[in-house]
Design a protein that fits this description.
9 helices, binds NADP nicotinamide-adenine-dinucleotide phosphate, Sc_DH/Rdtase_CS
Length: about 240
């Protein structure tokens, strides 16, 4: 993917990594539209970052995805990049019946939300001369954090989904890129002040640099994510799992 001159829709761009990426990509010379459920956040973003477009979207709801799709493609017919950033992460105690509700919500947003977005946008994107779908998984797709079992599983599912999607779309104009972040300082699960997580701006800077350096990249793996991403290949999976346990 070239780093400028695109029209990019980031579903899940109202905070954290999505918003930081939107601001940076806008500065790089892309038209960027961010989406999310929180109307107050969308209004704040419009006021603080007038260059960014906004659209309300709930990826748990197919009708909402369709409305957002119709809105962004009507207002931005050159749209050629979809980023499926929307995600939730909650701890689950598998010995408690309450965990089932968390698991079902996680599957709905993180797995179904991504698949529904891809399904809605692929027919439109494949008509563009050069298009990209960027999915967002996690280093935890490759070694799980036992405290968040369904979250890890949802990201592993989207890793696998992206691998198949890339093969199915190989003969189209759509490139598929997976970003697998390490811990990054956002409010996703209260890690905004964690020393163990990467500062948000440093993470997004590294992502942009990697995209720029390798426009054909299949995966964007920053240095801090490499240990978990390649643990199995490196032969230290058990050691990494013990560290996360
Ligand atoms: N931060 C990390 O350490 C880390 C590590 C690995 C992967 N990731 C992934 O990076 C992505 C962004 O997370 P973040 O850390 O930036 O956390 P965040 O600030 O909480 O961002 C999550 C985004 O997802 C949106 N979202 C959640 N549920 C949604 C729904 N049903 N429909 C539409 N949008 C929804 C939120 O918008 P609204 O609330 O406005 O809907 C928000 O914009 C997630 O997929 C996360 O799993 C993060």
């Amino acid at each position: 993917m070239r780093i400028s001159g695109n029209t990019i829709f980031i579903a899940g761009g109202t905070s954290g990594i999505g918003l930081e990426l939107a601001i940076r990509l806008s500065k790089e010379g892309n038209a960027v539209i961010v989406g999310g459920r929180r109307r107050d956040r969308l209004e704040e973003i419009t006021a603080a970052h007038p260059a960014l477009g906004t659209v309300e979207i709930d990826v748990d709801d197919t009708a909402s995805i369709r409305r957002a799709f119709e809105h962004v493609t009507a207002s931005h017919p050159a749209l050629n990049v979809l980023v499926t950033m929307s995600g939730i992460m909650h701890p689950e105690d598998l010995t408690s019946p309450d965990s089932l509700q968390i698991a079902e919500r996680t599957v709905t947003t993180n797995i179904l939300g991504t698949i529904r977005l891809a399904s809605q946008f692929i027919p439109f994107l494949r008509e563009q001369e050069a298009a990209t779908i960027i999915t967002v998984t996690s280093a935890l797709a490759f070694v799980p954090l036992p405290m968040t079992p369904t979250y890890n599983a949802s990201k592993a599912a989207i890793h696998s989904f992206t691998e198949s999607m890339r093969v199915q779309l190989a003969d189209t104009s759509i490139q598929c890129i997976e970003i697998a972040p390490p811990g990054v300082r956002t409010t996703l699960m209260g890690q905004e002040d964690s020393e163990a997580a990467m500062p948000l701006d440093a993470f997004v800077n590294e992502v942009i640099a990697l995209l720029e350096a390798n426009p054909e990249a299949k995966e964007i793996i920053v240095e801090a994510a490499a240990g978990l991403r390649y643990a199995e290949a490196n032969g230290n999976y058990d050691e990494m799992l013990a560290m996360l346990s």
